[in-house]
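Researcher: Here's a chain I'd like modeled. Treat it as a single chain, no partners, no ligands.
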Amino acid sequence: MPQVPSHGSHERGHTERTRSRVRGIAIGSSVAATVLAGVLAWNLVPGLGGTEDQGAHSPAPTTSGSRTGAPSVTKSADAPADTSGDSGKPATQNLLTPDGIRTALKALKEATGTDQVCDLTVYPEHVSAQVMVKGSKSRYDSWTYRPGEGAEKGIISGSVGPMDSPFSVDAFDWDVLPALLKRAEKELNVKDISSRYLLVTGDDPTFGDPKHMSVYVSNAYSQSGRIEADPAGKVTKVMPNEAKD
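Model: Modeled as a single isolated chain. Structure tokens:
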């Protein structure tokens, strides 16, 4: 008979999968930082970005959707979008809501031509996804959606690992998200929550886990917890912070 993985092996598998995603994000962030540093040096050092009479020292123009503009505003999970914005500034939108997720996913599907992903992470300010190459069951490209900027292809590409599998983003009921966030605030024993995000994954061929979504919350003291639920929103696991004040 095949050996059934132990609970410890299951949690290690979950941890390894999380570490793998973190490494991927770290690599992407490091490359992006290096590119940005080079661009800044080219424009700021006299003689590199053009002659001084061409405006070498004048500030570069910015657009309303630029990431280098005013810092984004993080709102609570149930806060409405800010539609009062000043002239010339786009209204902010909390993506960690049913409408926010649907807006991001619509843009990603229009940009890629597919609803198939192998990883989806939703923050209030942006959505990151490993979107399957159209027609492929193994290859994916990284994509990001930000309000005011739309869907952008990232620099990371890869193939599906042994603990992941593609799934359709339309298989999940996003209307259950507010209830999951409220339950996370009440049951995960994390005080002064400063970060919230949603992680959506497909079936796990290695450990036999079905596709699910997980709400994570944490605070400035590295205390965190998560709630897992099936695509319909039925809670299947609660992992609270075990630290005691």
